[in-house]
Design a protein that fits this description.
L-threonine binds at residues 31, 138, 178. By secondary structure, the protein is of the alpha/beta class. The chain has helices spanning 8-20, 42-52, 80-89, 106-109, 123-132, 152-159, 198-205, 241-249, 264-270, 282-297, 315-325; strands at residues 4-7, 25-27, 34-38, 61-63, 94-99, 114-118, 136-137, 165-168, 179-182, 189-192, 209-210, 233-236, 258-262, 274-277, 303-307.
């Protein structure tokens, strides 16, 4: 199969037709690029799992164009607090898990009785949803376990020969996958942190508990190791230049064999041969994290060292991804 990268304004009509025909299309969202298929078509959803090498028990996030479309996918109704939450953050980088009311392929549900739903804000994603005329199941458009793609070129690196079309809408503006909150319980559960923070969720919903190891995996990004490049990742949880320099100088292997993902200030102090600027705040770090991991990994370093410390609530999402990327013994999973 030949994979084409097409500017979104030129390829959107063809992309919608491919979705209607049961094929796969990679497309931009504000968080990361998604790998989309008709969420009602079981065979199309199976193609997502095959293209990604994704475990079949890992549910897909279903994308819809309008907030009102959620009622046709869920069982029951939203309470007033949840309605206010969606009015505040949809369209946007928020996924809600609700009891499934049917109309979605069981393949996309990963064997669960709930469905994860998002209304994206990216104009290309919105137009694709409207032209396709169906909900689109779309995990991140990477091979299972790798860092999520934030550009069309990242998608091509993983999906060349596996899908027919990639819509190029430029770099993702958020850079990390959506926040996922489970609303199928009396007390909501934050399953995955993202750009919509825990504090923002509690402002609308009241108490929101944090997922732990005993929480059922009703969302992508909860199992195994993922977000990981080929090279091992070490996360140094500091923003102190002297501490970072001391650790850098004590590395076991020659320092030119390491890649460094850090702020420009720390990069100048450590002077690595392979460096990617993570940025000097959490917003920039979220945008640059996956791009930096992928860029450094192409140089085949012995390891990638990430020097970063959380400074805002958004940083919880970055910390979550870094902890998983640095986890040992990968067994393969997905991100979005």
């Amino acid at each position: 199969m030949e994979t084409q990268i097409t500017p979104s304004n030129e390829g959107i009509i063809r992309a919608a037709q491919l979705i209607r025909d049961g094929q796969l299309v990679a497309f931009p969202t504000e968080t990361v690029y998604g790998l989309g298929a008709n969420a009602k078509d079981a065979e199309a959803c199976r193609r997502i799992y095959e293209a990604k090498g994704r475990p079949p028990d890992n549910p897909l996030i279903v994308h819809i164009p309008h907030r009102d479309d959620l009622s046709g996918l869920m069982r029951g109704a939203m309470n007033n607090q949840a309605e206010r939450l969606l009015k505040a953050f949809w369209p946007g980088p928020l996924t809600v898990v609700v009891p499934c009311g049917g109309h979605i392929s069981s393949v996309a549900l990963g064997g669960l009785d709930t469905v994860a739903v998002r209304c994206p804000s990216h104009p290309v994603a919105q137009k694709l949803l409207q032209l396709s005329g169906c909900p689109i199941a779309a995990p991140s458009a990477n091979r299972s376990g790798k860092p999520s793609p934030t550009t069309a070129e990242d998608v091509y690196e993983d999906m060349n020969g596996r899908i027919p079309l990639i819509l190029d809408g430029g770099p993702a503006s958020v850079g990390v996958e959506s926040t996922v909150v489970d609303l199928s319980h009396e007390i909501p559960i934050l399953l995955r942190p993202g750009a919509v923070t825990h504090q923002q969720l509690e402002h609308f919903l009241g108490p929101v508990t944090l997922a732990d190891d005993s929480t059922p995996a009703r969302s992508p990004g909860m199992k195994y190791r993922h977000y990981a490049p080929r090279a091992p990742v070490q996360w140094w949880d500091t923003d102190d230049v002297d501490q970072a320099l001391t650790r850098w100088q004590s590395l076991a292997m020659p320092r030119e064999r390491y890649g460094l993902l850090a702020s420009e200030e720390i990069g100048r102090a450590l002077g690595p041969a392979l460096f990617y600027n993570l940025g000097d705040n959490d917003g920039a770090a979220a945008q640059n994290l996956f791009a930096g991991l992928r860029t450094l990994d192409r140089e085949r370093p012995a390891a990638i060292i990430v020097v970063w410390k959380q400074s805002t609530p958004l940083g919880a999402a970055i910390a979550n991804r870094l902890a998983k990327a640095a986890a040992p013994n990968p067994t393969g999973d997905d991100n979005e």
